[in-house]
Design goal:
The complex is a heterodimer of chains A (about 575) and B (about 280).
Chain A lengths: L10 E9 L4 H14 L3 E8 L7 E9 L12 E4 L2 H5 L12 E5 L6 H4 L4 E5 L1 H8 L5 H12 L4 H11 L5 H14 L19 E4 H11 L4 E4 L6 H14 L2 E4 L3 H13 L4 E5 L1 H17 L3 E7 L16 H6 L8 E3 L6 H16 L2 E7 H5 L1 E4 L43 E3 L13 H16 L8 E4 L4 E6 L3 H13 L4 E6 L1 E3 L3 H7 L5 E6 L5 H9 L5 E6 L8 H12 L1
Helix pairs in contact in A: 1-5, 1-6, 4-5, 5-7, 6-7, 8-9, 8-13, 10-11, 16-19
Chain B lengths: L25 H15 L6 E5 L14 E4 L5 H11 L4 E7 H7 L1 H10 L4 E6 L2 E2 L5 E2 L24 H8 L3 E6 L3 H13 L4 E6 L12 H4 L1 E2 L8 H10 L4 E7 L17 H7 L4
Parallel strand pairs in B: 1-2, 1-3, 3-4, 4-8, 7-8, 9-10
Antiparallel strand pairs in B: 5-6, 7-10
The chains are: A alpha/beta (about 575), B alpha/beta (about 280).
Amino acid sequence: MAAMTLMTATSFSIAITGAGGAGVISCGDLLLQAWARQGGRGLLRKAYGPQIRGGESAALLKLTADECYTAASHYDLVVALDWGNFTRFEDEISLGPETRVVCDTVGEIPPSVLSQGPAVQQLGLAEMAADTHPDGRVNMLVLGILGRSLGLPAASLVELAAEKLAAKPVAYRDAATCCIERGYTIALDAQVSVPPLGSPQVCYMSGNQAAGLGALEAGIRFVAAYPITPASDVLEWMAAGLEQLGGQLLQAEDELAAINMTIGAAYGGVPAFTATSGPGLALMTESIGLAVASETPVTILNVMRGGPSTGIPTKSEQSDLNIALFGLHGDAPHLVLAPLDIADCVFTTGWAVNLAQQLQTAAIVLSDQFIGQSTAVVSEPRRCPPPAAGPARKDNDYLRYRLTESGVSTLAAPGDSGQRFTADGLEHNEKGTPSAKASDHQLQLDKRLHKLVSHDYGDDWGRRSGDGPIALLSFGSSYAAVAEAAEILAESGVLARTVALRLLAPLQVEALNEDLAGCEQLVVIEQNQGGQLYRYLRGQMDFQQQLYSYAVPGPVPLDARQIAEHVMEVIG
Amino acid sequence: MTEAIKLKAKDYKSAVKPIWCPGCGHFSVLNAITKAMAGLGIDKDDTVLVSGIGCSSRLPAYVDSYGFHGVHGRGLAIAQGLKVARPDLTVIALGGDGDGFSIGGNHFMHACRRNVNMTYIAMDNEVYGMTKGQASPTTPIDWDHSKLTPHGPGVRAFKPAALALAAGAPWIARGYSGNPNQIARLIAEAIAFPGFSFVHVLSQCITFCPEQTDWKGVVNEREGPALVDADEAAALFLHEDGFQTGLLFAQQRPTWPPATAEPVVEDALDHLAATFRV
């Protein structure tokens, strides 16, 4: 068989598919970690079917030379542990004539795969694994095979596998070692050449872990939450951390309880946080309004998934922007932020916590399944520690909701002497006494709006790059694909600037207008069907530019090349 | 903490005037709460009253302590979050029968089960007063005074004490608004109890259920010590008429959160961040 060129100049992508529980995610995870130890960069996207065991799962790896936050758009190598599970990902894993496929000798290769003309190498994977060790598993065998082809040291793979299986019986670890070593003896037909390696001084994390770290570093010491895919792993990661920090995590009976417990802890003066996904956010909205009205600082991380209703719990979409912006009843100004990539989950979540604390309001952070559950090799992430605490303030004649120039009033907590008040979701006067008077309503509405819109958010409201006459606008996780699309456009001589919004509410209209100065055409790019960001921006700003929407629903990640093609099309 | 607090019940009242109708049972509960606080010498600054929505849920503003008047049905959730985050505080949740047993029913069950060290006072008048007289989960099956259910709710009433017991509440008492001294004594005991203490108060609504003035003739104080056996308590709560008052059931059970065995780790944040380094 002729050797094939399996790699592009900058990346090498591998898809490993199998049944849920077959360990393909572990295989991809260990492979990327070993790659990172050698100084490589890359991203692992995890795709699951709805079942936990017996469903399908895929480890979608992109190995790169530089930091990378986009999913692979094509695959150089596909390892299908079985074909039934592979075909469930056919929409997400495109094969081409340059794709090499590795599969078991058992099982018939589907015509839909053969018709795309990949080179196929069949190996007796299951038989070999069973033959190697009584507890032998195919995923570890594949890890050995792939590790060798990528030039990763066998010892590194064995060590990482042993760390991952530390809590398992010793026989499992032995089996893993044997299978990795056996796999390492097997050569792929084709020569694989990989991207160049850099410094191994890096971090390896998922967006959900990064968000948890950002929250704890910003001072969160109380979490109440109800399990929900794809946010549960934020909570699982934070549980251990909170214990070490002397904080508390409370598993609530539902999201209604979770947000209210969070509000209760925050009222007690302990920075408090919850994490959820779309259906949970919907349940929380009434009480997020309570946090706004009672001016109790809380941070809600919403890891978005396909909606509406139960939707596609295991896959990504940016379709909760509308509910995050407009889901609260009444006039309820609050903060909405979105991390721009996995590492940025540390900064943006930390920033959200700090802003919520400072402005005594609710902050919703819109992450999603793609950046939440993907892991990446990243440089040391930027941090957002809490601002240094000012001197303790004590007001004489304490008024909890005192009208001030900034709109922010002194927030006492139980235990503070002589500053007793009743926090209230009922409209109230400065003291906090319930009031249905028109004047009190107007004054307190104005106070709650003013403190948010008059705050100086600095330059972190967005990430801007380039200065071409075309602007590509995005928010949150779409940014990475948009940035790549701008590079592709530049190769074709089309200069585009990118503006990615990290702070969605309050929208920094003036700053955004400044950034768009001199720009003639604007394309708003997002991963949902309805063009939620596009419509929001049109409602908030008077654009002089021609405005276009590129809105594609999930769950397939936005593709840079398709974005670039669309931009070329609309700008003529 | 201020030293040697010698305050009278009236010193625990705020300047805010209650919105309740004349003759409302909730006045008795307010008096009982402030009396219990005075009796225990509780520091106002270290006490928080938390409520949901309804006539009774207005109560926190009438007490000169810290307070939180939240949204309908979620007072117990706010209170548990607060107590878990701030175990040094005295936390009392309160509200009505609709708030606690209907919209907040799930939180009631789980609060009983979780057993956080706090007190919950349910002021039960068997009616939604604030929305002008609709049937609640404790309204008698044939109560036909509401235009919403002109033939009566047609469903049997909840038995809050039985529900609390089944859900795991370790301490259950019942009071009657016609006997504020008894309520004050029960609330003082409830606050002192190390765990989730549930005080079910029959608190009459003179406006929408004037027939509740008849309660005076049927309530009776239960004789003998509180039951400690859950089987006996179950038999009592399932078959009684609901008008026995006093401390009915008391059992010691581990509270949540459990005392942590793991000490706080120095530089924990640095260690956590380091786990991500390759």
